[in-house]
Amino acid sequence: MASSPVVALNGALAGRASRGYLERKAPAKARIQASKLCRRFCTLGWASSTGGGIAVEVRRDSVPRSNHLIAAGRRPACIFQAEGYHFLFNALELHHLGLNNLIPNHGLQQTGKGAASYANIRTYVKAGALNSDNRTEPLPRCVVLDIEGTTTPISFVTDVLFPYARDNVGRHLSATFETPETHDDIKLLRSQVEDDLKQGVQGAVPIPGDEAGKEQVIAALVANVEAMIKADRKITALKQLQGHIWQTGFENNELEGVVFEDVPKALTNWHSLGIKVYIYSSGSRLAQRLIFGKTNYGDLRKYLCGFFDTYVGNKKETRSYIEISESLGVDKPSDVLFLTDVYQEAVAAKDAGLKVLILIRPGNGPLPENHGFKTVSSFLEI
Question: Whole-model pTM?
């Protein structure tokens, strides 16, 4: 059985090994940071220190001794926030990730096959991560992800999914009109349109009764659905029908989900650390499973523990996030990290006690000045 990884701060490196070197200035600050890290690791019982460079050693019988030392730094360069902490642990992931680009501007190189086991880095969850004040912050127990503008480009939703649903709503309703599933969809749409007509919602038109005939009913449904899509309404009646239309597209290989490059890497990392990941989107749970079940990076559903949609509540209402945190069974709402690109959603989640980060992705809308939230452009920055 593999023993725990050994982290050593040692100026001299003996024997042949696979090495990645860090080159940056400010060694004095780096020594302070390295000392704090080493002190923390020694307290946990899986670090030792003699000063000098940084090395990570993995002891495992199945790995050649020449590959036990997989990373080293002659001049420690970990001087900002928790960069040193991330370097030490990301070194253990070289054999999974190849060239390690999780830490910007470090130029980490790999000359041999890494050989660490994720089973040995679960202590990371207990240790947490260092913030800008070098205090240890526990990692979240759960991460809740928005889709549009967070895991997935907005353009995929607006330029691919929405047009597909709009262009195929008539065909879908005609082909499935007599099925129980479509009966339920039509029932929801009728109820929604009745409310819209009472409130004077633009684009709402009356839907005739079944006695009017299939063609007239479908024509009225199509007119209402097109108006709802144009207005980008986040309502269950529309989202449920869209999910069923998209299901046909995915099954016929006419659609494929799109996620940003960092998403599968982050999902893999979080999964290995025991962090549970959930999706919360205005799209139906069916649509969510379709998007992540067939993406440009394969089926990612194995990394997801559950899906929330508008049945739990509006994404801009605090009560929705209270409901989610209670459903996840965490001790306190702050055990949950919510990632979104929408300011109003961030405010609602924060008011519910969740931790929040806002994603800055290509194509996302601008945020208010002095919005007060931390932002990242990649999941790998978290």
Answer: 0.62
